[in-house]
Amino acid sequence: MKKDNFINVTQLPPPLKHPTIFKAFQSLAEGEAMVIHNDHDPKPLYYQLSAEYPDTFTWEYLQEGPQVWEVKITCTQKEETVGEIVAKDYRKAEVFKQFGIDFCCNGGKTLSEASKEVNINLDTLLSELEKADISTAAPSQDYAKWPLDFLADFIANTHHQYVRETAPIIEGLADKVSNVHGASHPELRDVAKRVKSLTADLMQHVKDEESFVFPAIKKLISSGKPNIENGESLDELIKRMHVEHDHAGEDLRYIRKITDDYALPQDACNSYMYLFEKLKEFEDDLFRHIHLENNILFPKSVALETV
Ligand SMILES: [Fe+2]
Ligand SMILES: [Fe+2]
User: Are 83 and 108 in contact (CB under 8 A)?
Assistant: First the structure.
């Protein structure tokens, strides 16, 4: 056991006890253990860990008082990734968005990794995620429990339809605003160019998903056997879709960067404002769309293939 994995809780100031133990637990790899040394039964910790990380650890008393209490906590299952957390409860996506954590294209990161990347305290993130649990916002739709063929149809009928309807509107607006304001705000020319390539790529992308990827998933469900669609296996198709999602994510990040997070200048006209509103809405919809595919539909389909 690593030296860091022995925690003498009696030597920690009270406000640091909980964060130190949780941080140590989150850094455990699957199969690794840590030992908590205390002067009383740390049972409340057991309940806190069970609530935060159900079914991911074992709890074994090495000493049970009366003066010394020692518990060995073994990580039996690695920390959930950001994408998995959002897949279980979409309300958590709002928290990740608020902190600038990418839960769709880069949803494979654990909470600890993601919090380090955006330079925020892990405990702050955990407490905000906890608040989302009791949020009065509408309960999330439990997409992760939907049958995969139904989820594929839902994506096509809502998100793909949205892309088809909105892409030409955004493209037209971006051209118009760039023509009018491009001289005083040259970044708008770049926005228009990037919007054009993003929407063209996405139109082809949704077409390919509906023509090849989703049918391959449906065939796998009905026949139980992997199939080849248009010369590509489902695995290859999904890998290609992931790459295309990453490109779309990069395009939107780039547009955000050059517009300073869609900051409007003093001389912005109504079309300028509307363009930025539509771009934010488009980004929001695309993130939810990619999340449903990257974190639920695709991994579950790949898992079916390997059963
Ligand atoms: Fe899609
Ligand atoms: Fe997609």
Answer: yes
Q: Ligand 1 centre and the CA of 204: distance in Å? A: 10
pLDDT on residue 83: 87
Distances (CA, A) of 188 to 163, 195, 268, 269, 307: 21, 10, 12, 13, 49
pLDDT over threshold 90, residue 261: yes
User: How many domains, in total, are found in the chain?
Assistant: 3
Please tell me whether residues 104 and 242 are part of one structural domain: no
Question: Where in the sequence is the domain holding 187, given as residue range(s)?
Answer: 143-305
Q: How far is the CA of 91 from the centre of ligand 1 (A)?
A: 21
pLDDT in tens, 26-48: 778 788 899 999 999 988 888 88
Cα 290 to ligand 1 centre (Å) = 7
For residue 98, pLDDT over 60 is answered with yes
The whole-angstrom separation of Cα 275 and Cα 47 is 49
Q: pLDDT by residue (tens digit) across 202-234?
A: 999 999 999 999 999 999 998 877 777 777 889
User: Could you tell me which residues are beta bridge partners of residue 74?
Assistant: 33, 58
Distances (CA, A) of 210 to 71, 181, 230: 52, 38, 12
